[in-house]
């Protein structure tokens, strides 16, 4: 194989597919990036068996062929080469020469034949949305997946498409995040649980432009994201996702409305008295025109008042401050509405149209 | 004590003195910042017994007094408070209330009486130079101090003032860095070994402005840096510094001149084949009009040629690439001169006037 491409094209492609290179694996071939120039395009591929990414880069093929190169070394070399044309040429025993200007690298490659190709997916009608929207909806929900593997379904996000609405849901047992997005077109019902890791990596690769489109294909076991020159294929998480409808309620005894930034800064300040791993709740006392937030730890205490507009009863309730912070950070509204039933029932942060709903369970506390 | 000052003034002062708060100590009082408002100025102090920093901040004193507050919590609180006036007030048992707008923090302080004050220094004629120059000279030499404590003198830098020349030297057994600076005024001979840690912290606090001045006082056991509203006092390292004159030589058999950036990028590229801790040398082959650099490791090999102007003999010599990179990074000249005697003798990177001299010992290698 002998190919020529610019450093910038190569670096971009390597950056994209690297997201699917596993950090730890018992199969050395998975630590490689496959350069496939057997046809008339140059395709880079990486695959950790759950998640596979393929991208086409511009360049010239002088000799057809393919080679698998250690992802870490290869990407380091590309990154540090001068900004000029790079020639990659394979020799005997998969030895690979990477040349740019007067710099010559010689590294060992592996035969492309051992590489695990991406699964072949029978693609049907794609769901279309902008890169911007997909990137945003991932950011706005990904923080509330569970990071332990004891309940596999909690490590993924539900993608549910019904007519022209995409609903994305994540939950970790203490909270639920829901985002609803209006799509341009109308589709039949689709439901899939996409691994959180896949979404995080996809989100990093997405340019996030409003004008660029992503096409998403769902099959029984896989999801495929296609955008720009890139294809991401991921396994889905098997099983029936949690029925969240029964946990949602639009009844409330107390509704408060306040400035979002003020609330977020206040909770953020309060948490500095809480050491990592320490589970000190923030106590919220809702009164007529103001809400008092208090926290107390071994390090000291903090209290602060925030102006609010209130409907309904007064309330004293405690929360894990991190859960409030996570939700408030991804809400773009200037003012937010919080709905409460009582001190034992979840709090809902949501807008009127329920384009977002963040449910957070309260915690027990000793009144201070 | 009760004082009022703006968040920005307080945050700046806390940031400065925090540099002298030890990360680990058996004396909890040293983890504190002392706020001293017993006179008519507000002074912040921190002291780890080797290094002490004191800075004056603007503000209003409503009640004279002093208090020592845990540096970490106090600086976190200040950082997260709104950008407005902050009131600090002490109550019974050194309880301290920090208030800003509607946020109230209550933390435990410690009596200022237990605090270790900075030593009193009999200051004589100061050495004056610009903040920019001091910050630069530290950056240009600090990388070649030794980080282990087995030879205490190697963990510091020699500051030698003679007439109008300040010479700063650091060495770690494998290399020596020397910078000479012309001062505006003329002074009597002064010599002191300043701890590397002190210099690193001072360098972080210096604004680095050309027009701002630093005054440096040397006494038998201490050095004092005075600039802006800040005083830094540090112990000196005791003992006679190494005699480096006998290691320096202006004889050479080979002199080469080349573009600095080209050389630096080339060595930087070569090192990516060397894993941390692995001691692979870079082999330099000096020929008539070009210099070849080669490195070989388990990961592969790299070679590259650089155009040079040469005087004297051809040479084959090996170096720890990191040492070359460290020196080249802090040289601002576009072209550099390297002087060699033979493959066993040190290489000198220096300019004509010897405002900088970087000596680097070669390493043995197996010809490849």
From TrEMBL, chains A, B:
CDD domains: beta_clamp (cd00140). One of its GO terms (molecular function) is DNA-directed DNA polymerase activity. Transmembrane segments: none annotated. Residues 247-363 form the DNA polymerase III beta sliding clamp C-terminal domain. It is found in: Cytoplasm. Keywords: Cytoplasm, DNA replication, DNA-binding, DNA-directed DNA polymerase, Nucleotidyltransferase, Transferase. NCBIfam families: dnan (TIGR00663). Forms a ring-shaped head-to-tail homodimer around DNA. This is Beta sliding clamp. The lineage of its organism: Bacteria, Bacillati, Bacillota, Clostridia, Lachnospirales.
């Amino acid at each position: 194989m002998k190919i020529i491409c610019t450093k910038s094209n190569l670096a971009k492609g390597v950056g994209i597919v690297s997201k699917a290179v596993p950090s730890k694996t018992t199969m050395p071939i998975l630590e490689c990036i496959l350069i496939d120039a057997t046809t008339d395009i140059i395709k880079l591929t990486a695959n950790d068996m759950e998640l596979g990414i393929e991208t086409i880069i511009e360049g010239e093929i002088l000799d057809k062929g393919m080679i698998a190169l250690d992802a870490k070394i290869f990407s380091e070399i590309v990154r540090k080469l001068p900004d000029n044309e790079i020639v990659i040429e394979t020799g005997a025993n998969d030895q690979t020469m990477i040349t740019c200007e007067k710099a010559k690298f010689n590294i060992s490659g592996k035969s492309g034949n051992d590489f695990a190709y991406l699964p072949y997916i029978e693609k049907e009608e794609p769901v279309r949305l902008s890169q911007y929207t997909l990137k945003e909806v991932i950011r706005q929900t990904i923080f509330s997946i569970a990071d332990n593997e004891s309940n596999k379904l909690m490590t993924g996000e539900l993608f549910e498409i019904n007519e022209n609405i995409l609903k994305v849901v994540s939950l970790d047992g203490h909270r639920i995040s829901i985002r609803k997005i209006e799509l341009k077109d109308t589709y039949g019902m689709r439901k899939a649980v996409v691994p959180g890791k896949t979404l995080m990596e996809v989100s990093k690769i997405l340019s996030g432009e409003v004008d660029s489109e992503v096409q998403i294909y769902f099959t029984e076991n896989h999801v495929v994201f296609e955008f720009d020159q890139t294809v991401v294929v991921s396994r889905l998480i098997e099983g029936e996702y949690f029925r969240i409808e029964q946990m949602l309620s639009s009844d409330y005894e107390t509704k408060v409305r306040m400035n979002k930034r003020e609330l977020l800064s206040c909770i953020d300040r309060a948490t500095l008295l809480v050491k990592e791993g320490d589970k000190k709740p923030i106590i919220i006392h809702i009164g007529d025109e103001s809400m008092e937030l208090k926290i107390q730890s071994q390090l000291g205490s903090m209290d602060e008042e925030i102006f609010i507009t209130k409907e309904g009863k007064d309330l004293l309730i405690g929360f894990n401050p991190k859960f409030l912070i996570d939700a408030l950070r991804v809400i773009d509204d200037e003012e937010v509405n919080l709905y409460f039933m009582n001190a034992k029932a979840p709090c809902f942060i949501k807008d009127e149209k329920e384009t977002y709903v963040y449910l957070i369970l309260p915690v027990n506390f000793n009144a201070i």
